TrEMBL record:
SUPFAM superfamilies: NAD(P)-linked oxidoreductase (SSF51430). This is Aldo/keto reductase. Residues 16-315 form the NADP-dependent oxidoreductase domain. It comes from Fictibacillus fluitans. Gene3D superfamilies: NADP-dependent oxidoreductase domain. PANTHER family: D-THREO-ALDOSE 1-DEHYDROGENASE, NADP-DEPENDENT OXIDOREDUCTASE DOMAIN-CONTAINING PROTEIN. GO terms for molecular function: oxidoreductase activity. Its EC number is 1.1.1.-. The keyword Cell cycle does not apply. CDD domains: AKR_AKR11C1 (cd19086). It comes from the Bacteria.
Length: 327
């Protein structure tokens, strides 16, 4: 396992880390036994960073992480998120009292005294522009409840707003071969300010595994069923903003990236990890097998300059026009 500095936090985190949305809920059937085995396996392979949120299974993924990391709290870093239990547009939702309550609830579920990285969970843009929530996080940091804080954003514009605040240590962004806009301005500016980049949806909700065919039906409680067109939350969170059938069509055109590499998924993750501004990728998982598949990215050989140009051209000419929603 290789480790990278997360911005200016002093934390060295595994370049392949994991998100826990899928084991908490909204990705179809979940199994706690499988999830805990997978977490144990990831830790045994050197993974030392996990991303979660208070709304993943109404806190269930935080509780699973507490079980998996009990006795290893000083070795395993946990990032969690807040604000989506309330009205993300209401300033009251970001008051000191409300955020402190969210924080203490997460600490209780995690069984920890402080949160390594506390992230605002895709708040409304106007909240970021207002900026008072950053003062609240500074206060929680001074009190020792939070060691570092960052923001999970939906758009490049939101990320750039966050970079105006000096104590933001990380940005969590949607970034993959189907969604390359952060490369243009956000990543260079984040690097110049020593702000870490956590990449979510690195496989575009599974499209970049190459395993799906058009017409596939996901389980009723899977966001890939109920949020394909942004019915429940930002459309970019599902298939990177592409419609499913169009995404399958485009992923079929990218299957060449697996040539000479373990899999399409490992190749897609390798491409992200080779962006110098990226701290780590945080793919999801539901079982030990998926952990192992994603960890193959560590030993996947990088792309040649010719291949990189082919991927960039494909995005510009074939993909970008089909991405829906602001990004």
């Amino acid at each position: 396992m290789n480790y990278r500095e997360l911005g200016n936090t002093g934390m060295k985190v595994s370049e392949v880390s994991f998100g826990t949305w899928a084991i908490g809920g909204s990705w179809g059937h979940t199994n706690d036994e499988d999830a805990l085995k997978a977490l144990d396996y990831a830790i045994s392979q050197g993974v030392n960073f996990f991303d979660t949120a208070d709304v993943y299974g109404d806190g269930h993924s935080e509780e699973l992480l507490a079980k998996a990391t009990k006795g290893k709290e000083d070795q395993i870093y946990i990032a969690t998120k807040f604000c989506r239990q309330g009205n993300i547009h209401s300033p009251e939702n970001y008051s000191y009292e409300r955020v402190k309550a969210y924080c203490e609830d997460s600490l209780r579920r995690l069984g920890r005294e402080a949160i390594d990285l506390y992230q605002i969970h895709c708040p409304a843009t106007e909240i970021l522009r207002d900026g008072q929530v950053f003062d609240v996080l500074d206060r929680l940091k001074q009190e020792g409840k939070v060691r570092n804080y960052g923001v999970s954003v939906e758009t490049v514009e939101e990320g750039l707003i966050c970079l105006e605040h000096p104590n933001v240590s990380s940005l969590q962004v949607i970034f993959n071969m189907f969604r390359q806009k952060p490369l243009e301005a956000l990543f260079p500016q984040a690097a110049s300010k020593q702000v870490g980049i956590l990449v979510r949806l690195p496989l575009a909700s599974g499209l970049l595994t190459g395993k799906y065919e058009k017409g596939h039906v996901f389980e009723e409680d899977d966001h890939r069923n109920f949020n394909e067109n942004g019915e429940a939350f930002n459309v970019g969170e599902t298939f990177a903003g592409l419609g499913f059938d169009k995404g399958v069509e485009l992923s079929d055109q990218l299957k060449w990236i697996a040539d000479g590499r373990p899999s399409m998924a490992s190749a897609a993750l390798r491409w992200i990890m080779d962006q110098p501004e990226v701290t780590c990728v945080i793919p999801g998982f539901r079982n030990e097998r998926q952990i192992g598949q994603n960890l193959q990215a560590i030993d996947t050989h990088p792309f040649s300059q010719e291949e990189l140009e082919r991927i960039r051209s494909f995005y510009e000419t074939d993909v970008k026009q089909f991405i829906r929603g602001p990004y």
